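Appendix B. One record, verbatim.
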Amino acid sequence: MSATFTATAPAPAGAAEARTPSAGEAPEAADPTAAENTPPPAPVAAASLAAPRPARTTRPSSTSRRPGAKKAAPAATPAGGADPRFENGPLAVVDVEDGKVLAYCTGGLVLDVPAKSLPSLVDWTLKEAGLGQPKLSGPGRPADPLLVLTEAACERYGLPPTLSEEEKHAGRIPEGYRAIKQLVRAEWKLTKRGFGPWARIYRPATGSERACVQLCIPSWNALDPRFWGAAGQLPPAELARVLGVYASRVMTPRGSAAVTGLELMTALHPPTRASAPDADGKRHSEHNPGSLGKDAIDPMNFPPCEVPDGHPVLKDLPRFHVRGPAEMLFEEAYDWARPMTDAECTLRHLVGIDVNMAFAAGANGLPVGLGEATHVKAPAFDPKLPGSWLADLSHVDLSRVKVGKEWVELDGSLLPSPFTPKGERPTGPAWYATPTVAYAQELGYEVRPIEAWVRYDNGRYLDGWYNRLRDAYLATMADLGVDADLSPEDFLAAMEGYKARDPELAIVVSAIKATVKGGLGKLRERPRGEGWRPGEPWRALSRPTWRPDIRAAVISRTRINLHRKIVKHAAFTGQYPIAILSDCVVYASPGPSPLDFLPYREGKPLPGGFKLGVNPGLVKWEGTQSVLWGEEVRERFDAPQLNLARYIKDGTVTDIDNGE
């Protein structure tokens, strides 16, 4: 098919977001500050906690905000505004000023805190502070109030302002601290993870209401700078604004961005709901349809192909056995590059484009398994059935594929295979998630799986999760001046320096993105120390949300979505990618802007191809370097296939990065 779109371009106007080495990795949980994922038992009603009722005063932020503090964004108004129980918002940053303890809430509100000890601070929070957040789903429960303690507040309440190296390694402080002893005497409990950067303090339940408070301690690295930037160093009012916007648009943080991403899935699909009244008029807890349920899948019932090395279901494998593609499902993001052709070397620029919220877009509308898998021999492939399929896709030839309903001729040597993360053509049978096998059919080739693990109980579990994170991202980007309805030229201009317009909201954008990747990564969380040995179960396996098959399906669909756009682009323009790293694609271009090679006609993009815009699945400008730079870098490191997508942002290459 010939190119029917023409590319016109001004000079690049949009500054792309910085790409770090970890940006090319598939979603994987790796945050040492993650909080306990299993919520504590439901506690007694807060009203039953015997404690004197302290006085409370409310002062407008205009008289107490620190110099230079910004007015809260509209979304930072108390997230629980419609619920009188949470009149002061979801959280507060507790600080000490001139000997007074102050709680900085969302919307600029500041409260006096009369509590003299940590137990009394917890009591005050539950009975007087008016903190919390309404539930996100009908059968769910409201979010527990969150207190963020500054270093001064830590010292005031008997906690260390920072952790020692030993405490950092343990992820908690020893139980001998005075504050912990005070909590024990007051009959408060901590989760199994103890008192760490994200501590949860609760009382066991005897009623329906909860008595639970979450603590966040930034000076203990609760707010990982990889995802939260400089949030941990912000003054209290500004930090309350950042966390308040995030809480109102995503949810009250429950731990790291990864933990919160996983908790958001559960909050939107609670495992149980109240049944219809029985003969005596009583309601009972029952399974909530569409959820993953309250019980984890037995580790021994997982398909061996879906689990990582060291899983209990693989305990009988020889110790040093290395599983190949025919034994292990290996759906990961792209890390692929190729040498440039002579024609590409005559062009002047290498331009990188990056897919917005790529993994979130991959989750949208995706059917995933809700329960255990069923093993099937010689199955007929069903593209609507979630599962893992052992199939030989080595016969798929990218030199001749279907694009839409038409067969097209392409240069297959310049394209990565859609079936492997490294872009290599498969050589025999391998395990694939449903979206990968379905794409082989879409390209016009027959598939005959040898066997499969399929999940007949399935649904679009991640749709609500995607919608909430998408809306949070778009609303925050709109606050930064990047709207969803901009023309390509205006979008590039709006992206130029957008973070500098409001650095605090830019932190929220980063945290939202980390929530997507981290939450998906948590679906296949690996052992985190704890004296674990290969073949033994680890803590994460006890969660219903430990679902490596769901993670694999999302990554598979994300990679396929990208490949589909690349093929469409090649069929219409004759242009092929030079390098791909996860959601970043690099093309040789005659000019420095994405509009110099993206085929727009009268402002409209190629249908099914790349489109500039802020919405998830659309692309932004990642960076531009010269072709001479690319050739020089590859020659310097003697690596003709060095992945230039990893360095396209600023051109800095300190050493070869293998992507691990």
